[in-house]
Write a structure and sequence with these properties.
Largest sheet: none
Strand content: under 5%
Helix content: over 70%
Length: 268
């Protein structure tokens, strides 16, 4: 999937610029509001309060919408990682249904597949590493499926094949779903609309405060910083492996499978 320019920009830079822009916009609005009040010799806010409240409400609604969407996507990624790890574990167990020689071959391929899944997570935002891990995983998938289908033609392996083929199919599907979930993120148009509404709310709030002579630069700066912080957390949730939020606990499930490959099915 092609990454947009906005998605490639660091979230800290985006939110830092937004916070500064909100402060500057509020200050400009205050100057404009104060000038209009002096020209008209009218200190009343008139309909400004309703407009200001409406924009603040819209801004809060957009913040809640984007944050909940990003939180839902990271929850989906977490669930898919746990399910994918369980699917790999199921395939590892079913390898023990085969004769010793085939068991060793399956376990070697499953180890390669597991390593590709771990490499996919550890690649973070390195697109070349992500693509490399994905290609290695797909190559191993083809080998696993070819071996399993060839063995399924032998009557002696009917029980093992009846268990292994569905397990591999589930493992492959969950792996593909995990890769897709890692690429899904908030559309740029939503982020841009959020920024526009944030600046509009800052401008209107500053104008209303300047019009009534109660503008506080510190207060508006504090609001801008808090809003930028919430937006940063939202973007961080939406960009797996790029910021401070990671799914390291879920990844431990894959790391533990390496020990399972060494222990399960060993001769007593």
């Amino acid at each position: 999937m092609r990454e947009t320019v906005l998605y490639q920009i660091d979230a800290v830079l985006i939110c830092g610029v937004l916070a500064l822009a909100m402060v500057a916009t509020a200050w400009f609005g205050a100057r404009l509001g104060g000038r209009h009040a002096r020209l008209r010799a009218d200190q009343g806010k008139g309909g400004l309060a309703s407009i200001e409240n409406a924009l603040m409400g819209l801004f809060g609604l957009l913040l809640a919408f984007t944050f909940s969407g990003a939180a839902a996507r990271i929850e989906t990624r977490s669930n898919l990682m746990n399910e994918a790890a369980n699917a790999i574990h199921g395939a590892i167990l079913r390898a023990d249904l085969y004769p010793p020689a085939e068991r060793v071959a399956f376990r070697a391929l499953l180890r390669q597949y597991l390593d590709s899944r771990i490499a996919f997570y550890e690649a973070g935002y390195d697109r070349a590493a992500l693509d490399g891990a994905t290609e290695r995983g797909r190559a191993v998938e083809r080998e696993l499926w070819q071996r399993a289908t060839e063995l399924s033609r032998e009557p002696a392996n009917s029980l093992a094949s009846g268990q292994m083929l569905p397990a591999l199919d589930r493992m492959f599907n969950l792996g593909a779903s995990r890769e897709l979930a890692a690429k899904l993120h908030m559309p740029d148009v939503i982020v841009l609309v959020l920024f526009v509404v944030a600046l509009a709310a800052a401008l209107t709030s500053g104008y209303a405060a300047g019009h009534s002579g109660s503008f506080s630069l510190a207060g508006h700066a504090g609001f801008a910083v808090l809003a930028a912080l919430v937006i940063y957390v939202t973007l961080d949730l939406d960009r797996p492996g790029r910021g401070f939020i990671h799914l390291d606990i879920e990844e431990q499930s894959f790391l533990r499978l390496r020990a399972d490959l060494a222990e399960i099915g060993q001769p007593g």
